[in-house]
Specification:
- This protein is α/β, with parallel strands linked by helices.
- The chain has 22 helices and 17 strands.
Length: about 600
């Protein structure tokens, strides 16, 4: 579709508008002007056939809230009650700005809200001040974006291509709302990889949610992918976005494609502004902001955690204040559909999640910290299906390594209590032209190869491994030694208990006992004591006979050191091989020096 003649002509025509802006606006501002004009013209073209009927009905209505009626007349989720359009606005050159602003305000509330979030009125005024508004309006008045000329799907592609190009022009901030398309394609491949058969019915209906949807790229690519699998599928997409301008872009994309734009909520999905509270979805997909603190939302989030506990979204714990990634993870888990266990032991219902997270989520936080508690909850609840290590330098705003986590509450029997791990760090291809911090990309072949490695789960493949959840767990035991008097006698409290000397306190991390996760609380306690006493008697008391373990301070934690599983030892180069070229160079220099001395004589 994106290679079609119509697609390229439209993109090139719209892109040429940037030539008019050059000199009066900075390159990073081009998209803020062009994109809302594209939306405006698309809406205008879509409404052209019913415009007269809408105006007539609006004039005859005596009701206070005519929106539902006028939407029905327009045939869309939006309408406009003004006699004006871009062509008529051009007929009065002295009042272009005034008439265009009136025209914008005549759109239905939902459509006007989108244009308002673009800051469109302010930009129209600035174009007028720079004496180029008439030219811009003229350009778009000549652009045919009717549904007959450009079907919804192709219009979506055009909008996404423009968004990509403008994002690349302002790559210093692109990463805040734009995930590279090849990364999204990999996420989508993995997200739907286990459900191929279920998605091929006559007209399956599925729902997809992104709590930090930015401009909606993940929702769009997901829909495109599923339509390729099954043209009859109906994917209802939902999202929420905190940034007003990117929210407007996402809503615009849905309006342009004929999806319901009201499903994209505005605000902070992590607080009481959750626009989809109580809703569950078949799939969740997201690249939430990582390494960003949540201090300014802290009061609302802490309040929910304390009041609702495990009945709310944050019952597992609250992560460190400088990275809210795990808040998004818990939020998405709360949006999972419930599962039903069938008679044969299989599970139906449920949901799958694909989410990009920074490396810190694999190991951050000491045992008992918020991050550690959340990671423990995810693993002990058997929600983690897999983790894929991505190449570094893949994103516009960070060079650090990132990881694709796959979560589900409906694992197949063969994968229960196990986790797939894929090392795709070497699959990135250097880019010819870096974009911000992005230096590498994934080729189509790399995406297919990573997907195949993940799906097939072949233990003989050097890029694949599988571990039990328990393999990543450990118990941190606190080893105490007594406080002693000057005479070397243990100090006791009033109850006759030996007091510990905190300056001699030590910690030891030991693997969890086999079968620990499935044990009840009493057996867990007993099993941990067996592990602790065995270590105490065979190791510690060889050196400190009076040591003991304070089991009341024992903490359980989990880390996923994926890089350790794929580490390949490379023996150091033989010293003689290293010295050989150095010795040769020294001999050569010595010979040159001898010849130089002879020449001087």
């Amino acid at each position: 579709m994106t290679g079609s003649k119509v697609f390229q002509e439209k993109v090139n025509f719209i892109w040429s508008v940037a030539d008019i802006l050059r000199g009066d606006f900075k390159p990073h501002e081009y998209g803020q002007i062009v994109l809302p004009f594209v939306v405006l013209r698309r809406l205008e073209c879509a409404l052209a056939a019913t415009k007269k009927d809408v105006i007539a009905k609006a004039e005859s209505l005596q009701v206070q809230n005519p929106e539902v009626i006028l939407q029905k007349v327009s045939g869309h989720s939006f309408y406009n009650t003004s006699q004006l359009d871009l062509g008529k606005i051009l007929q009065d050159p002295n009042r272009v700005c005034e008439n265009l602003l009136h025209y914008i305000h005549s759109f239905s509330p939902g459509a006007f809200e989108v244009l308002e979030q673009y800051g469109f009125a302010e930009r129209v005024k600035k174009l007028d001040e720079n004496h180029i508004l008439y030219q811009i309006v003229g350009k778009f008045a000549d652009l045919d974006l009717s549904e007959e000329a450009v079907p919804n799907l192709e219009m979506g592609y055009i909008f996404e291509e423009l968004l990509r190009k403008f994002s690349e022009m302002s790559n210093e901030t692109a990463g805040e709302h734009y995930t590279p398309r090849e990364v999204i394609r990999l996420m989508v491949n993995i997200l739907f990889s286990e459900d191929g058969l279920a998605l091929t019915g006559s007209k399956p209906i599925r729902s997809l949610y992104d709590p930090a949807c930015g401009t909606g790229g993940m929702l769009s690519v997901s829909e495109e992918y599923l339509k390729q699998i099954n043209p009859g599928i109906e994917l209802n997409v939902f999202g929420q976005e905190l940034n007003g301008e990117t929210w407007a872009m996402c809503r615009s994309d849905l309006m342009i494609k004929g999806q319901d734009p009201t499903r994209i909520a505005y605000g902070n999905s992590l607080t009481d502004e959750d626009g989809h509270a109580g809703s569950t979805f078949d799939y969740c997909i997201s690249n939430p902001p990582y390494g960003v603190d949540w201090k300014k939302y802290q009061d609302k989030i802490v309040d929910e955690a304390e009041k609702l506990g495990t009945a709310g979204r944050y019952g597992a714990g609250l992560p460190r204040i400088d990275d809210g990634s795990f808040l998004f993870v818990q939020h998405m888990v709360s949006k999972m559909k419930p599962t039903v266990e069938e008679a044969d032991g299989s599970v139906s219902g449920g949901s799958r999640i694909a989410v990009i997270l920074g490396g810190g989520t694999l190991f951050s936080g000491a045992p008992g910290s918020g991050d550690a508690k959340i990671r423990r909850w995810l693993l002990e609840s058997d929600l983690v299906e897999g983790v894929i290590a991505l190449p570094d330098k893949m994103f516009y705003n960070t060079e650090i390594g990132t990881y694709l986590w796959v979560l589900t509450n409906r694992k197949p029997k063969t994968l229960r209590d196990r986790i797939k791990l894929v090392d795709a760090r070497s699959f990135g291809t250097p880019m010819r032209k870096p974009l911000g911090d992005k230096r590498k990309e994934l080729s189509d072949k790399a995406i297919a190869d990573i997907t195949r490695v993940y799906q097939e789960g072949d233990a003989t493949n050097k890029y694949f491994a599988t571990q039990t959840c328990e393999d990543f767990g450990y118990a941190r035991f606190v080893i105490e030694r007594p406080k002693v008097t000057e005479q070397g006698l243990p100090v006791q409290n009033k109850k006759g208990e030996i007091q510990a000397d905190s300056s001699l306190r030590d910690h030891e991390n030991l693997p969890l006992p086999s079968g620990y996760i499935s044990m009840d609380a009493k057996n867990k306690e007993m099993a941990l004591q067996e592990v602790g006493e065995a270590f105490l008697n065979t190791v510690v008391r060889k050196h400190f006979k009076d040591a003991w373990i304070d089991y009341s301070k024992t903490k359980i934690a989990y880390e996923i050191p994926i890089w350790r599983l794929f580490y390949e030892y490379e023996p150091p180069q033989n010293i003689s091989e290293l010295l050989e070229p150095v010795e040769s160079e020294i001999m050569s220099l010595a010979n040159d020096l001898v010849h130089l001395v002879k020449d001087l004589k």
